Amino acid sequence: MTFRLCLRNNICRLPKDTGPCKGGHARYYYDPNTAKCRLFMYGGCLGNGNRFTTKVECEEACGAMSEVYDTGAPPAKVNEASGVQVQKAPQVPVEVFEEMRRITVMYSERYREFNLHRNENVIMKAILQEK
User: Fold this and answer.
1) Phi and psi, residue 81, nearest 5°
2) Residue 74 sits in a domain of what CATH number?
3) Could you tell me which residue ranges the BPTI/Kunitz inhibitor domain spans (predicted)?
4) Rounded to whole angstroms, how far apart are CA atoms 31 and 29?
């Protein structure tokens, strides 16, 4: 069995993460098992860094970094209908996960504050225009 790895960028090895919010934002993530950038629906908050606005951006960040290695390990599961081998993404080191979580929380809070202030400004403009 072969297994594709992102060598230079740990972000590319993170699993797809839609985040807890319910927005519907089309984004791309890098799938190291297939060495391809795939479309998914991002919820709009949290998640992880394996999230790109465009396929080109995803491919530039991760696509050229994959190489094929024979792990010698059997696949975790074989989909019998398609014969496709399915394997879980590699475990992310705790340090990488914690750093990505810290960054995600920081930017999520800034995004929330930005939207709050933007909404306040829109409301104030509407009130002033009514007068």
Assistant:
1) -70, -40
2) 4.10.410.10
3) 12-62
4) 6
Tokens representing residue 50 in the block? 């394996």
pTM: 0.46
Confidence (pLDDT) at 86 = 53
Rounded to whole angstroms, how far apart are CA atoms 16 and 21?
Answer: 14
Torsion from C-alpha of 81, 85, 88, 91, nearest 10 degrees = 180
Q: How many CA atoms lie within 13 A of 39 on its CB side?
A: 4
* Residue span of the structural domain in which 84 resides: 2-130
Strand 77-78, strand 85-86: pairing: antiparallel
pLDDT tens-digit readout, 69-84: 445 555 455 555 555 5
The dihedral through the CA atoms of 107, 111, 117, 118 has a sign that is positive
